[in-house]
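During the reporting period the student researcher (J.K.) took over the structure-prediction task from the postdoctoral fellow and processed the backlog of single-chain submissions. One of the processed entries is reproduced below for the supervisory committee.
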Amino acid sequence: MISRRSFLIALAFGAAAFVAQAAPPPPVDTSTVTGKVVCGYQGWFRCEGDGSKNGWHHYGKMQPGNVGIEMWPDMTGLGPDERFATPFKNADGTTAEVFSSTRPATIQRHFEWMRDYGIDGAFLQRFATTTRDPRFCRPMDDIMANVRESAAKTGRGWVLMYDLTGLKAGQHTVVIEDWKRLVREKRVARDGSEAAYFKHRGKPLVALWGMGFKENPLTMEDWAALIDFFHDDKEFGGCSLMIGVPYWWHRLDRDSIPDPKMHELLAKVEILSPWAVGRFGTPKDAAKRMDDALKPDLAWCAEHKVDYLPVIFPGFSWQNLQKGRGKEGKFDQIPRLGGQFLWSQALAARRAGAGMVYVAMFDEMDEGTAIFKTTNQPPVGESKFLADPSLPTDHYLWLTGQIGKLFKSPAPAVDDLPIRK
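J.K. obtained the following structure tokens:
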């Protein structure tokens, strides 16, 4: 006869096994971006020895005193094939390591984090200026393939987002050529076979970032041609569009060109998303944003039947990146305040009436906006890195998940930063 003690032990092991085998969260409804919390995914980090032949891409020169990142990734749990040694040293004298975005296991891990913390999906950045260069295009294609697979495995959604920064007037055709190739060769967002790809208003969503910025020389005629192509081309069109615009697009001033033609074009698209990173720097500024920008933006969008995807970000810092360019950059320029800054922006967006939100960014270590796991014990020495030892390394993943709950809940938003139990 089994003893009471043995029975209790067996019961405990059974309960543990049940918890360990608990069903994963259901897949995200990718038929719409409405109601979702999504994040930008750069996927641009490459290392010496990772096979990409791109060197320390987006890590800078990767030398103490000359590095391109402002925070250091938390490498806990990463496998041997995901680790790349650097010239940096940890406080205990061991070699500091980083990851490469080319590794399928690393991208899979990132999407598992999205799933585990309740983030609905990612907009994969694709930089138009490099699509014609095989040295960079091939790794971008590989990373996209890994994002597609990881999103499908984890039940997350994904969108291809072209960043048009750096294109000159008339070069919009670079995007069209690349999209045609991806549809022909990779079948991106075609045939309804890719369940993980986000749709919006019944059509696959493509994001184009950079309309109307003063530093972007593409003309309104270029943008009109892009919109017509993605909407109407018989073979490669049939898409919904999200357009990334300047923060002050509505007023047509400050960071925006003063061309009213932009409003005419934006009235034709499905979603617009103003770039907010660096446009304000305190929770008070974020609260003020509700009346200064969010409500007027939303009113315009409602009038023109365009959906609105506001951008929020956890903080900003780029001292190392700017130093590598021979410039001055302030360390911890926009402090995170333990998440209060990010939360205040989410509150403002929710209270203004936004129905979805874009968090910039998941993995952007160059400008210190990353929400993924970064270490609070970065390498020591000449270069300085952001860290907050009072917080767990997954704090901003968890907080982004709380923001997702905020946008999905009918309950009134509360001012206080959520407390982790």
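The committee noted the following: Residues 98 and 313 are 23 Å apart (CA to CA).
J.K. will present the remaining backlog at the next meeting.
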